[in-house]
Amino acid sequence: MDGASSAATILQLIQVATQVSAALGQYVVSVKNAQSSCDKLIKHISIIISAAKSAKEILDTSQSSQSLGCDTLLAEWFADNGSPAQCMKEFDGLLGLLTTNSNGGMKWSTKLMWPLKERRIKAVISTFDQHSAYFQLFLSVVNSKSMKQLGETQEQVRDMVQGIAANASETRDDLKGLANGVQFVKASQDEVKAIATGLVHELELTKSEQLNATQTEQLQAVLRWFNAFDCTVKHEATLRQRQKQTCGWLFNVQQFLDWRSLLIEFVWLNGKPGAGKSVLAAAVIEELFKSLKSGETLAYFYCDFRNSRSSTAKEVVCSLVVQLLRNASGNWLSLFPELKERMDRGADPPAALDILSDLLIRASTLHERPMVVIDALDECSDLPDLLHTLIKLNDGRLRLFVTSRTELIIREKFASLPSLGLHDMSDAIQDDMSLRIKSELEATRILRILPVVVKDEILDLLLRKADGMFRWVHCQLDRLGHCRSAGDIRKVLDTLPIGLFETYERILTAIEEKEFDGAVASRALMWLVTALKPLTLFQLGEALIIELGRHTPNNDIALMRDVDILDICGSLVSFDEQSGYVSLSHFSVKEFLSSSPPITVGKPLNKYFVDPSVANRQLASLSIRCIIDNAHDATSCGSRRCRLVRYAVESGFLHIGHICEDDQSIIPLLLELQERVSMFPSNYVRIIPTRLSRINSMPAWRLTAIPDLALHIIIRFGPPWLLRQYLDQHPLKVIEPSNPLTYAAQFGDVYRATILLDKGLDVNKKGIFVCSYEPIACVLPLTAAAMACGNEHKDSLITLFLERGSNIPSDTLHAVLRNIDGAMDNISIVRRLMHHGADPNALESGDSALHASLSAYCFGHPNCNCTTIVPMLVDAGCKPEALNHDRISGLHLAAENGHVQAIRFLIDSGATLPGDIIHYAARAPTSSRRTVINLLLSAGADSNAVTPESGDSALHTLLQHRCLSSQYWACSEVAEILIAAGCKVDGANLSGQTPMDLAIVGRHLPSLQVLMDTGAQLPADSIHSAACSQDPEMLRFILHCGADARFLTDHGDSALHVLFSRSCWGGTYCNCGELARILMEAGCSCEAVNDAGESPLHLAIRNHPDLSALHVFADFIGGAPSPLLDIIHALAIARVPYFKADRCKNTHYLQHNGGSHSLSPTCDTAIHVLLKLRRCVSLECGCAEILRILVEGGCPTQSLNHVRESPLLLAVQNDHSLPVVEFLVGNQALVSDEIIHAACRRGSPRAPIVKLLMQHGV
């Protein structure tokens, strides 16, 4: 490129940049909330313009004086894909987006579109951030050569702009706008900040405040879908252990200060067991929460051995992801479209650790400075996976603070990372420990009264022997607190144990010395050491009275009080009063009790030590016994004894997998359970909780629907040796639809499947496939393996079944192709199936294999079918144009589900585009919709295709498709593409709806703007559509554009009628009051009556229990509408017990506004209408209270309607409650013989009412 061309390129960039800056300036002046985003972009533009001038200076420098660095910078500048070129593209896009009328100011509709344009601007800011370093380099190069650049005056900028103006053929108004832009460019950063400071309190709203209620609910729904583990309760409990004025030293340690000030990104706090690491982690979390700076966000997690959910790497990362997303401002869901789409199709949240790690990294980009604190890494059950993930996350984006013991595997992984060892902080630890001991000495009743000399001795001894372990100190103080005399205290001090394990041994010895405590403690500790989930105190108490060999709990050994367990076990256990959970007090307690008994321990103490295999057998057996016993006596389902059933069903079967070899005692219990379930299936459905974990639980229908239940449980949960022994003792008797091989295919592995095959099971015999919701009968084991989700042995199982001669039904290949979870590589499986004869052209419910492979959303993960499998299927003979039973082709599905690569391949392969494919592309996932439509249009797709059944155009289809509010902008871009391709903007479908109608109802405000900019006309009934949209901004926009607020339908309904014709339960997300106010301010009458004789107030009372609507009416009419007609009729129809208070308040309102004196056309008073309701026998209905309000308001109790029915007669005839009848009789209601006859004619004579009537002379 020659010098002149290079200079022109630079000047062109400056010209466009200043125009964009001018447009941004107009938004700052005219649009509320625009200052913040515009400021950021203007700063970027000023840097780019300064860099352009630097480039110009470098270009003007003689060739001899240019350095190699300058040549490199210039080469990058004029490269097609260089930073300046990419920024120029962004400027071009922004210029069209932001152009406004410089003569008459900014239109109201343009201002309204700002929040949508702001998203684009922030995306551009993100792009400029990526190129900022390059432009800064230009500035530094020029600055290093001369300081003249820093002193450049305002005149130099004006001369440059005048030079641009001289070469441009723009109008005077354009030059005026350009000059305004230059003023923004030349303003210094200090001046910009000064302007922003004056407006910040008014113009800068947080993203969360800008979210509407619908967006907030969508975000919360996705977060709930993750079902992430919440550590709030654990944090609060740990923080309560912190002594005042302790832990503060940590915040002044150099490593922490460096981490806090961004000098380092990782700190590992490590120490020995019981050294107070968790309390320090809680202190760090609390300190960070109190001192969070602008842009900082904190997420934390406590690994906890007490709960299997809080001790896995997957749960750690998942919880951190959810916290970062929850703390993000704005509608972050637009950046994670795959999550919403995955949730909407009913799939489980991501579970693979690599996927969750990627989500965590992406979620961290939503924050300027994200921080993460993780406590007790050593308590994670899959520690290697967690450590690998943390190393991956330590890329400088996240600041990590983690704590753990100094385990070898952790030391090796973190060897090169900054660490903070508590052994180096002995003085600070001693000070904290001293404060803790002094506090406990004053808080404990017995220790408080000790002489000061003794307290000082206790303090000195504990500090010298603690070796930095707070846990050890706690146990000794607990032991001292149980002393009864000075001699006992002296004995404890003289015999202080060394270390935690000796301490625990002393505690067990003390328990054993008490006559009745040993048996309780040994059983309780076995449960607490082995249980896979936390147990409540009541559950543990129930567990202790279940005995093998008994068919009922042994109440003779039940503790009189469950809390006695805490007293017996002492410092070995802890109890959380808030949650009710009891657990081992420390991880070291579990380590001690799970170890082999020390040589020094006598035989009486051996019973307290837990052998994992024996304990798991015990818990599995006791859980099964609990299920059997509770279902046998179904009347106990609501009693205290059922509390353990939830744990037994959710986790009891999991213990079977940990039983050692040659222990077959579990088999008879499983057979007994199988027999009981077959005899009393309804009892088991009734006693088993329905809302259980979908991963490890055994839901009720599984227990009752599976004929060979014992074998199923062994295959699903048991070790392979147990399966072999079961089969040796109980020969298989396979009866369709039961083939245990299908269980192994779904839940097992190759080893279990091989055992079953070797026992003679037929690989070509069908059996039950167990899914999350209902059993699917009659599938081959091969198909079951293909359909299984999350089975890591799927590939090897399919290989095994094929080697054993399995047939390949068409649904097998289809099942593999529909698996899109990304955790499995389907390509090798598909190849193997096709190699063994699977026919990709075979139809399953009309679908070919190509249909199956394209039937789900494409999220772009490496294992997506569209990249490799689709070409494989087409090469095997699958026809892209082939239609299934619904007349849908593979190309249709590829377009609808966003398989961009598949579409490209099929088009390049010569596939013929279906005439209606543009409609399917309009329903593609938001993330790929624009690409898909552009791709199809460039290939010749018909943009004007109309669906024959509905008459919809592609614009209709696009605007009918539900999407997140954050995706409206993307929809509007697609609408622009379709319109540019010739799609008609005013065409109506067979229902008479135009794209404009659908845009209004669907709240597609950006798309509506696009339609109006292209000349579309507002439909006459657009005001009704806007009312249906429930969106105040849409309604205001429609009215601003000229919609008639007084428009009536053929049935006389106004927009207010339409608004209140839909039921609404009120609450936070109801906009009806605001919408009604907007309509009435625009001239819509609230007194208009439609052809059915109903006013908007009728409908408001009937369908909207929220009183705000009534108050809106009162503001505009000053009282009840005229004519009132039967307003109270609408009130009565709204009879729902939950709305007792609302009915009473509404009645009060009508009574005070003259509504209770009116008569209906049948001469019914409000009381007649109320009492015509049948079978209103509940005192909660509020009829008696409403009746009192109406009578006090002057409504007569003696009036007769046109068929001479009195209110009292209606009350008796329609089974109203005794208080209603009593009130009427007490207020001079007409009493006659006809009334007592009516009372006696009821199906069940109502003695109290008859007695009441007779007392009044009937």
UniProtKB/TrEMBL annotation:
ANK repeats lie at residues 886-913, 991-1023. Residues 1-22 form the signal peptide. Keywords: ANK repeat, Repeat, Signal. Transmembrane segments: none annotated. Residues 245-405 form the Nephrocystin 3-like N-terminal domain. InterPro entries: Ankyrin_rpt (IPR002110), Ankyrin_rpt-contain_sf (IPR036770), GPIID_WHD (IPR054471), NPHP3-like_N (IPR056884), P-loop_NTPase (IPR027417). SUPFAM superfamilies: Ankyrin repeat (SSF48403), P-loop containing nucleoside triphosphate hydrolases (SSF52540). Residues 519-595 form the GPI inositol-deacylase winged helix domain. Gene3D superfamilies: Ankyrin repeat-containing domain, P-loop containing nucleotide triphosphate hydrolases. It holds the Pfam family WHD_GPIID. This is NACHT domain-containing protein. The lineage of its organism: Eukaryota, Fungi, Dikarya, Basidiomycota, Agaricomycotina.
